[in-house]
């Protein structure tokens, strides 16, 4: 997910990346955010809006599926918080690459430096 942090300011295009995972096996949504937690109202509002739209779309297109997600709760997974306001994209990419629903991958500042090199090279 990408969330604009100043949507009403045409000059500020700053934003924040975080991940939402749909866990069909355990029947819930998982939110992984490297800056915020479930206590952040801006995050929870953004997440709930997206997930409610996803549930409605799922119901519209998969109403006859044996898997229904309308009752799935949202779980905010505890993650290591980043030390600045610029590395959220790297954290989110690592969550997507390595998240398996159990252990949260720890991303250090040194690892972010290496990831910058890898992504720049690629």
UniProtKB/TrEMBL annotation:
Pfam families: Peptidase_C48 (PF02902)
The organism's place on the tree of life at top rank: Eukaryota
Classification lineage: Eukaryota, Viridiplantae, Streptophyta, Embryophyta, Tracheophyta
Record keywords, A-Z: Hydrolase, Protease
Originating species: Triticum aestivum (Wheat)
Biological process, per Gene Ontology: proteolysis
Stored PANTHER family: NPH3 DOMAIN-CONTAINING PROTEIN, ULP_PROTEASE DOMAIN-CONTAINING PROTEIN
Molecular function in Gene Ontology: cysteine-type peptidase activity
Protein family: Belongs to the peptidase C48 family.
Presence of keyword Metal-binding: no
Protein name (Swiss-Prot/TrEMBL): Ubiquitin-like protease family profile domain-containing protein
